[in-house]
Amino acid sequence: MSAQNGKDLLIKVDLTGDGQFETMAGLRATRVSFNAEQVDVTTLESSGGWRELLAGAGVKSANISGSGVFKDASTDERARQIFFDGETPNFQVIIPDFGTVEGRFQVSSIEYAGSHNGEATYEVAMASAGALAFTAVPVA
Questions:
Q1: What value, to the nearest 5°, has the Cα angle with vertex 90 and ends 84 and 91?
Q2: Is the C or the N end of the chain the one with fewer CB within 10 Å?
Q3: Nearest Cα to 61, choosing from 130, 135, 133, 136?
C-alpha cells in the first residue's frame, strides 16, 4: 500500500438521523484508535509460565479525536448539541484505502482555544457507544 494523504482521514456526523453524513467542518488533524481489553486466564499450570489470554473476551472500544479551525458551521453546532444533550448519534470515520467505520459515538469533550493574533481552534474527542460496523474498500 502506498502512502496516504492525511486530509483524506475524515470524521463525518449524521446531522439529522436520516443517514446523511457530513464531514465535521474545519478539522485539520484526525485520529481513530481501536482497543480490546485483555482477559488474563493464566494459572500455575500455564505452559512455561507464559501468560494466557481468553480469546474473544474483554470490552472492545474505539476513540476518535480531531482538532481544527472553528468554523461555526452546521457540524460544529451539531457537535455541541450532541455533547450538551448527551446523545450518541451515528458517526463515520473514512480511512483512505482501508475502509469506513460506522457506529454510535458519544462526544466526550470539546475544547475551544484562540489567541489574539490567530484563529479560533477546537478539539473534539468521542468514545464508541455500541457495536461498530466496518466496510472495507474493495481491492482492485
A1: 95
A2: C
A3: 130
Task: Locate the domains of the chain by residue range.
Answer: 6-136
CA pair distance 14, 20, nearest whole angstrom: 6
C-alpha cell at 36: 480490546
Distance CA 59, CA 55 (A): 12
Instruction: Report the distance separating Cα 33 and Cα 62, nearest Å.
Output: 6
Q: In this predicted model, what pLDDT tens digit does every residue of 113-134 receive, in sequence order?
A: 999 999 889 999 999 999 999 9
Q: Which triple of cell numbers denotes residue 47?
A: 505452559
Interatomic CA distance for residues 17 and 45, integer angstroms: 52
pLDDT in tens, 63-76: 999 999 988 788 88
What is the rounded CA–CA span in Å between residue 1 and residue 99?
A: 13
Instruction: Provide the H-helix boundaries in 26-108.
Output: 74-85
Q: Which three cell numbers stand for residue 78?
A: 451539531
For position 1, what pLDDT does the model report?
58
Which amino acid, residue 3?
A: A
| Residue 51 three-state SS | coil
